[in-house]
Structure formats: C-alpha cells, structure tokens
Design brief:
This protein is an alpha/beta fold. The protein is built from 26 helices and 19 strands. Helix 8 packs antiparallel against helix 9.
Length: 658
C-alpha cells in the first residue's frame, strides 16, 4: 500500500505506511491538546476502526515535542467536546494495537494520551511528567489511575505529587515506557505495531496495580507533603493514586470530580496567574523588533561567592568566561571556587564529564583589567560600595571595546551614578542576580536612565540563555525585590513593637506557605550586614519616621544570628528555639516607647504583612519602577520565598476576602 496523506483536522494529519496509520499531531509550538487536536484524534481513531486494511496505529508529534500538555488558551474556559478523558478512553478501547512514539516531551495530558496507548516507545531525549500540581490541580484524564498501574503506587505518588518530569532512561526503568529508540522513534513504533498485531491489546486501565510495601508508600507521601506547605493539590493527588486499585471507571469519576473542583480553587487561580505572568514578563515596552548585541564572551569582575555563581551560570549556558580579581592569588582562589561548584554539578549528575571539561576549558582568570578586552559583556560582582564600583567601571571603560556592555550587580546602590562615571553610560545596565547565582532563577534587569534599547535587549537575551526569569525594573533603592522586602521587614518589626513575637510571626508565615519565617531567615543569613546598613543610614533618617530599635539592641548584645549561636532565637546544639532573653529585650523596647502590646491572630499578622508589601508595590507601579503587578509577584515568588500557590503579594492582596 502506498503512503497517503490524510487530514483529520487542521492540527492532526495521518500517513498510511504500508498497513499502519501514523497519526501526527502538528500544533506548534508544543503540540498542545486543543479542541482541534482532540477532534482530529477522534477522526483518526474512527478511520482506523472502520478500515479493515489498517493493522494498527502509531501516534506521534511533529517537531521536537510529542504533546506538551493542555492548550493554555482553554485555561479557565468551559470544556469543549470531545473532552480529553473520552478521547483517551477511545484510544485504550481500540481493538487494534496503538503505539505512542514519544519523539519529545510528553507532559500533562500528553503523557495521559501515551498512557492510554497499548505500548510506548520514546526517544532517548524524551521527557515525561504530570506537572498538574504545579498549577494547583491534579491530572484530569486518567493520570492518577493509569500511572500507578504501570509503575506502582510509591513511584506514582512521587511523580504526580511533585510534578517532576523524568527522562527516558528513568521512565524505562520505572516501567512507564516499554522501549527506548535511539534512532527512529516512529520506525520502532511501526515495528512494535507489527509485533503486537493479532494479540489482545495491553490496556493500561485494565492492569492490576502492583503490590506495594506500605512503608514505601508512607515514605513517598511524607516526602511530598513535607514540601506541599499548605497546597491542596498534592494531597489530593496522593489520595487518588492510593485508591487506584479500584475499578478504573470509579477512579476516573473521582479523579475528574477532584480535577474540576481544584480547577475552580483559589490555589489554581493563583498558579494560573503565575503561569501567565511569566509569559507576560518577557514583553517589554519599546523593545519589540530591537535586536540584541552578540554576546559570546562574558567577563566577571569579582570572583567571590556571587561572582563565582554568575560564572558557573554563564559557563553552563555555553559562554566563554574571563574572571577578574584584585590580584593573582585572589583570581586563583576564584578559579578554584568556580571549579568547585562545577565539580558539585558533576557529582550530582547535573552535568557529565564531557560538559565539565568543556566548561573548564572556557574559563580563564586574570588580575589584569586589560585581559577583559575580548569581552562582549562584563558583569561586576564586587563589594557593594559606590566608590569601589565607580573606580572599577572607570578602569573597565578604558580597556573593553566601545560596543561591549557593562553590567552592575548592585543590590541597593544607584546604577545611574555608576553609569555616569563612564564615558558611555548608554552601555551600562543592571543585572541583579540572587544568591546563589547559579541556582536562583530570578534576575532583575535594571533599565538605567540612559541604557540603550539594544543594551536592554541584550541583557534580556543573556538572561534567557542563562535560563533566568528576567524581570525588568527601573532605578530605585533596592529595585523591585528589595524595595518590597524592606516594606515587609519594616512591617514585621512594627508588629513586634505592637505586640507580636518573632516565633508568632514566623509561624504565621510558614502556615501561609513561606518555606521559612522572616526572623529565622534573618538568623540564618546573619544580622550584622543589615545592622551596618542601618548605622550608615542613621544620619539621614527622618526623625519623624517610625523606627524600631529591637534589631539594633539584639546586635549590640552580640546576637548576630545562627552562626553566633543566638539571634532572634537561641540555638543550643544548633537547634532553633524561642529565647526568653529576646522576649525581654522586645518588652523593654516597647516600654521605652510606652507601647501597650496586644495579641495578634495569624490571619492579622499575614494581612498586615501582605498589605505592606502591596502598598509598596503600588508605589513602584506609580513611579514606573515596575511595569505590571504580575512582575512584582514573580520577583517575590522567585527571589524571596513568597508561596507560588498564593500568587504573589499583589495577587494575594487583591484576592484576600475583606
């Protein structure tokens, strides 16, 4: 039989190869499961069922993706027939062998489609996962019921409860896929159809759930729930997976009802907000059509902890890196620090030996400014002192090319003052990394007063290559993140003075979803740096402005945090506990100001902190520092531990019942 092309819908086509129908989903960019794709799959199944000459089916995706999941355009919209569970049921019920050829990512509903097939072949580069919990929902087309039948309950709890994806090798070891095809995924799938022809199809939904060890189940549950921090979807996913041994129809009905209920929850609404916010963040006013400059070599000035982290991120993105430090000894230490981080990546499997060797070969260090001459971009990561940074930029201005870009990593200093000290302020930009820079996803890209559009575009392009979430901010002290964090910290200190205690505030924040309370974070980071900054600001502080001295009293008493054994808490044998000495210091400070303390509920604490963050956020919007509320939310989620399932401070403040 000659190959013939068939159009099942605008996004699904078929090719008859011999006696097998190859169904190709072609819905760029990620072959999302739109209504048109679903109807196309139904039409393809009807064709296969009604054509006696068709031996079986292969379902695959065009391009480099099998199916990337749901169509985001349908988020929050009424369902459109045919709904995905019904489509997958028809795939599974087909009497002819149906093989999924996973040519690339199979995520969410894409993996559920593959689970409905009778056999799964994957390329070695394919990734699979059910990430629905990251959107505040559970799989809604059989994922919680079919996956446990293939890989067992503990492994299914791990994958569905965490939302993580697995590569083909792990998927094959788990039993999620049947075969890895290093060359020709479709060809391997065609061969599988011929082997399976004439046999009863192996329907995943009819398999028995493998017997399991209850201790393994409890271990998997504990691990997932410990990270859930108040989210509802992971717990519901676990419940559904644990009950997968019941008849498929019963489990599917429960899963669908749970999916629909969670989809309407505030948690899911918050996650959808974050999802769309990340896509909106890349849209920057005045930059449409502005091409970035070519960047191949990045200089890093200052090879301490921050500079080394930036270097590792740049090497991992394929850049050549030239590190600069004050003398040969410091440069050599910086090189060892960078290689140490790369070794850790090698040890943990993030990179292999080939990648390690390539990254090491792209790294050089120096103590001579002139050696940065080949750089297309130089990022300074030296001590956060204005005079130090201005001196460095003046020196760099003389040795790098006129078209090279200079970036400052300052957290609080004014980059416009730094830029003004150079001959070409239009080539200066802020790139505010978060520590550790090779791990933290957030990058504030600071548009200075005279930054050229193509320089800003280059900063964003580099951020994307570094796999950072780039948020553009204007110039103000602390930019977006530290401005909001300062308001948050200030309000927390007001709460202390008004009657709350550190452990009460921390407990309220952790119950809300923060990974760690504010005062515990202070102790972990150390109190001395913020104390030094407060002392520098004392001479310019407005005497009419409310100022809380409690933190100063702690520092004066030598309570500098966890490393000192005491801070906001005491740390006997390294374990955090409430310290009555701190309670007494707080009481003394209240008395000195004649403050009559009152008690606060956890809700009152969180509401006050949210209101303070949102008020500062509105000021940043009014002043043009932040472009949109959602950018502020992304900064606080990705840089400061704000719980994503609450949507960020701006979203949460707008959706908190009053």
């Amino acid at each position: 039989m000659e190959a013939a092309a068939i159009l099942f819908s605008d996004t699904v086509r078929g090719e008859v190869q011999g006696d097998i129908l190859v169904v190709i989903i072609d819905n760029p960019p990620v072959n999302a499961l739109s209504a048109d794709v679903r109807s196309g799959l139904v039409a393809a199944l009807d064709r296969a069922r009604g054509d006696a000459g068709i031996l079986g089916l292969v379902i695959t995706g065009a391009g480099r993706t099998f199916i990337g999941g749901a169509d985001i355009r349908e988020f929050g919209q009424p369902p459109v027939e045919p709904i995905l569970p019904a489509v997958i049921e028809r795939i599974e019920d087909l009497e002819k062998p149906t093989v999924a050829a996973l040519n690339g990512a199979a995520l969410g509903g894409g993996l559920e489609v593959a689970l409905g097939c009778h056999y799964r072949v994957a390329s070695s580069a394919a990734q699979m996962g059910l990430p629905e919990v990251k959107l505040g929902i559970v799989p809604g087309a059989g994922g919680t019921q079919r996956l446990p039948r293939l890989i067992g309950i503990p492994a299914a709890i791990d994958l569905i409860g965490s939302g993580r994806s697995v590569k083909a090798k792990e998927a094959h070891e788990l039993g999620l896929i049947d075969e890895i095809a290093d060359a020709g995924t479709v060809e391997a799938a065609l061969a599988a159809v011929r082997r399976l022809a004439g046999q009863d199809p192996r329907r995943t939904g009819q398999l028995a759930v493998p017997a399991t060890d209850s201790a393994a189940v409890e271990k998997a549950k504990t691990r997932i729930l410990a990270k859930a921090r108040g989210q509802h979807a992971p717990a519901q996913a676990i419940r559904l997976v644990e009950a997968a041994a019941r008849p498929l129809a019963e489990g599917m009905a429960d899963e669908r009802a749970t999916f629909l209920k969670l989809r309407e929850s505030s948690e899911a609404a918050a996650f959808r907000h974050v999802f769309f916010a990340e896509r909106q963040a890349s849209k920057v006013e005045d930059l449409e059509g502005v091409p970035p400059r070519l960047v191949e070599t990045i200089g890093i000035a200052g090879l301490g902890l921050m500079g080394s982290g930036i270097a590792v991120a740049a090497l991992g993105a394929g850049y050549r890196v030239i590190g600069l430090d004050r003398d040969d000894e410091a440069a050599a230490r910086g090189r060892e620090r960078i290689l140490g981080l790369l070794q850790k990546n090698l040890y943990t499997g993030r990179i292999d030996q080939t990648a390690f060797d390539a990254q090491e070969n792209r790294l050089s260090v120096t103590a001579a400014d002139a050696d940065l001459a080949p750089c297309d971009l130089v990022i300074e990561a030296v001590f956060d002192d204005l005079d130090v940074k201005i001196d460095l930029f003046r020196r760099l201005d003389k040795v790098i090319r006129p078209d090279a870009i200079l970036a400052t990593n300052t957290s609080y200093l004014n980059p416009d003052e730094i830029a003004a000290a150079t001959a070409r302020p239009e080539r200066v930009i802020g790139l505010h990394f978060f520590s550790p820079a090779h791990v933290m996803r957030l990058l504030e890209v600071v548009r200075c007063a005279r930054t050229a559009p193509d320089v800003l575009a280059t900063g964003l392009a580099v951020a994307k290559k570094l796999r950072k979430l780039a948020i553009v901010t204007g110039v103000t002290e602390g930019f977006i993140g530290n401005s909001i964090f300062s308001a948050y910290r200030r309000e927390a200190e007001f709460l202390l003075e008004d009657g709350a205690l550190p452990h009460e505030i921390d407990a309220a924040l952790e119950d809300y979803g923060f990974p760690m309370g504010l005062f515990a974070v202070y102790d972990m980071a150390g109190l001395e740096i913020a104390w030094a900054r407060r002392k520098r600001q004392a001479v310019t502080r407005d005497p009419s402005e409310r100022y809380v001295e409690i933190a100063d009293r702690l520092c004066e008493a030598g309570r500098l945090g966890q490393k000192a054994g005491r801070g906001w808490y005491a740390y006997p044998e390294g374990k955090r506990q409430v310290d009555p000495v701190v309670t007494e210091i707080i009481a003394q400070c209240r008395t000195s100001k004649t403050v009559t303390p009152r008690s606060f509920t956890a809700t009152e604490i969180v509401d006050r902190l949210l209101a303070a963050m949102a008020a500062e956020g509105r000021k940043l919007l009014e002043d043009g520092i932040a472009a949109r509320e959602s950018d502020i939310d992304l900064v606080m989620i990705n840089g400061y531990g704000f719980p994503a399932h609450k949507g960020g401070p701006m979203f949460a403040a707008a959706h908190t019942p009053r």
